[in-house]
Write a structure and sequence with these properties.
The chain is of the alpha/beta class. Strands 1-9-8-7-6-5-2-3-4 form a 9-stranded mixed β-sheet, with helices on both faces.
Length: 348
């Protein structure tokens, strides 16, 4: 990404930046009715837009969308009827959905939207030249997008334009973001490449891969040293929410202000030993694999070949001791509303 692209990305858009007429007469199709799909469709409807949901006949969420008062059509019919199409199917099924329902039903001037840039960034989908291609990506799960909207607020969004065929793609994308509540909180201008690469890196190196591996390593270190597994779980997993919530509210400084001075001092002197130059070099390698498409090719091939490695990794971690001990402890915490992931045995 060039320095010019980076400077363009560093701009926030709010309600006052939205052209309220940009989606006048729009017929919006939301493809998918999962976490994001239900929030987008309902928020857009409540904002006064003409919305239909595209779901195959076999979809288990058709009845849910219909019960919510939305028109539900087969994806082919939804796209053919619409001039704004938001693709909210999983990354791994978007290519097939595009080829079966979207590609042959796009018209010049249509706006094709995504909430993540993976399939565009890595060439899984190549829209025709006459179509606007943009992204509106809420930085929060769908239930939060819906709840904050109903509270008169919103969730921040990333907004990008990959292809501006009409000259109005930015305003149309911002109007869509406004329709789901995003411009109430602020929309950051970015690119498909920047969003995709940073999102994958954040998931792998910090939010999912990094934290999961750190928790398991911390648990194993304590139990191998002879400490009680239950105590190890409380120290490296249970209290993690407290720390993350403090960071979420006020950043690292507020977290450090809120914990003990002993914990803060340990943060400064021991954290850099855990995340040292070797870790940083590994992170740079992870980022390089994302940028050059190595990870994307591996993930695409994994899905094309039956997901055997993916399922094996999942099964292995389902049975990690920190998971079994944690499930037993959480089951005793009535206030927690403990959950059990599919494929895991519920604690006795």
């Amino acid at each position: 990404m060039s320095s010019e692209d980076t400077l363009m990305a560093a701009r926030m858009y709010y309600e006052t930046d939205v052209d309220p007429t940009a989606l006048d007469g729009a017929r919006i199709a939301v493809l998918g009715y999962g976490s994001q799909g239900h929030a987008h469709a309902l928020n857009l409807r409540d904002s006064g837009h003409d919305v239909r949901v595209g779901l195959p006949e076999r979809s288990g969420t058709r009845a849910v969308a219909e019960a919510d008062g939305l028109r539900v059509l087969d994806p082919v019919d939804a796209v053919a009827e619409a001039n704004v199409i938001m693709v909210l199917a999983p990354d791994t099924s978007q290519k097939a959905l595009y080829e079966s329902a979207i590609r042959d039903n796009l018209q010049a001037g249509d706006l094709l939207l995504f909430a993540h840039g993976f399939t565009i960034r890595f060439g899984q989908i190549s829209p025709p030249d006459g179509v606007d291609v943009a992204m509106v990506a809420p930085k929060g799960p769908g239930h939060l997008v819906r709840r904050t909207f109903l509270d008169g607020q919103g969730v921040p969004c990333l907004v990008a334009v990959e292809q501006d065929a009409t000259g109005a793609a930015w305003q149309r994308a911002l109007a869509y973001a406004s329709g789901i509540g995003g411009t109430r909180a602020g929309c950051l201008r970015t690119t498909f490449a920047e969003e995709t690469e940073t999102d994958l890196f954040g998931e792998q190196a910090v939010l999912c891969g990094g934290i999961s591996s750190l928790v398991k390593a911390g648990y194993e270190t304590l139990t191998e040293a002879g400490y009680q597994p239950e105590l190890a779980y409380f120290e490296v997993m249970h209290e993690l929410k407290l720390i993350v919530d403090l960071m979420y509210q006020g950043g690292l400084s507020y977290m450090r202000y809120s914990v003990s001075d002993t914990a803060e001092f340990g943060d400064y002197v021991s954290g850099p030993k855990v995340v040292d130059e070797r870790t940083r070099a590994t992170m740079r390698g992870i980022l390089a694999d994302i940028q050059d498409g190595t990870f994307a090719r591996r993930w695409i091939a994994e899905n094309e070949n039956g997901r055997s490695d993916f399922l094996e990794y999942r099964d292995q971690d389902h049975h990690h001791p920190v998971e079994t001990v944690g499930a037993e402890l959480r089951a005793k915490m009535a206030w927690l509303d403990a959950k059990t992931a599919p494929g895991m045995d519920a604690p006795a």
